[in-house]
Amino acid sequence: MGVIIIIIIMYFYNYIYIMSNSLTSVWKSDINKNVNAIQRKKNEIENNNKLIDKKTNNWGKFGQSIGFNFLSILIFIIIGCNFIFYTSIYDISKDTLFPTNSQKYYTTNNENINNSEIRNPLLSKKQNAAAAAAGGGAGGMSNCKSKDKFSIGTLGKTVRKLGVPPNIGWPYSMIEDTNMDLTLQGFKNWYGITVSEIMINLRKVLLVILKFFDKNENPGFSSDMLQIIFSNFIFTMIPLLMPLLIPIIFIIFFIISIYTAWKNDKNPYHLFFFIILFCGPASILSGGVMVTSFIQFLFTFLLLPLILNQGKLKNIISCNITFFTYIFGALCVSSAMTHLDNSLGYSALFVYIIALLRRLYKLYN
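RE: above sequence
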C-alpha cells in the first residue's frame, strides 16, 4: 500500500514539474516578444530622428515655393496699393466711382448732369511727375508722398464702356419713374430701382471704410502699411467666410427687393408686391445681384485703378517697395527652412534678420 502511495505522489510531482516548465517557457516567450516589440519601436524612432537630422535639399520644391511666393506678393501688392489708391482720391472722385445719390441712377437725371468736374483732370502730367519725384525717391515706409490727394482724371470712352461711372447704362437705363405695377415698364422700374438701392447701400459701406483710412479724417490710421495689411486681411477672410456670408447677403438683398416693391406699389391690394415676393422675381434678382456685385468688387479692387491712373499707382508701389521686399524675403526664408537643409535654412534666416535690423535702424535714426 505504501509503495502505491509513493508511486502516485511521484506521478503527480512529475506532472506538476512538467506543467511548471511549460508555463515558464510560455511566459519567457511572451516577455521576449514584448521586449522585441519595444526594441523595434525604439529603433524606428531613432531612425526617424536620424532622417530628420539628415534633412536634404529639395531644390525642386524650393523653386516651386519661390514661384508661389512671387505670385502671392504680386497679389498682395495689387490689393494693398489699389486700396491706398481709393483712400487717396478726392471726395468728388469717390462720388463718381461710388455714387450714393439715388437721383444719379436715373437716366433722365444723368442727361442733365454737368460732367465738367469729372472730365477735367485735377492732376496734370506735371503734377504726376512732381508727385513721383517727391515720393518715389523714398522707396520705403516713411516720408513718402503716396498719400497726396488726387483726381481720377479724365474718364475716356474705354473706361465708360467698362461701366464707369457705375450708375449709367443697364439696368438703370430701364428706369422711367418710380411707378411699379403689373406692366412691363412697372417691372423694369422695380428691377432698375432695386439694383440701384442694393448698390447704393454697398457703396455707402465701402465709403465709410475708405473714409476711416483717409488722412484728413483719421491721420493715425492712414499709414500705407496699415492699409495694405487691412485690405489683404479682408481679401483673405472673404473666401473663408463665404459659406456664412452668402445666405446673409442673399437675405439682405431679398429684403431690399421686396421692400422696394412694397414701397412703390400703389395698388391698394399690393398685387405687384405679392407677385414679386411669391413668384420668384425677388429671389432671382437677389441671386443675380450677388454674383454681379462680387465680380464688380473684384474688378474695382484689382484692375480699375490701373486703368484710371497708372502714374499714381506706380508711385504708391514705389513708396512701399521696401515693405513689399521684406514681406517677400520672409516668405522666401520660410521656403528655405521648409525645403532646404538646416544649415541653409538658418543661414537664410540669419541674413534676413540682419537686413531687417539694419533697415529698422536706418528708419528710426
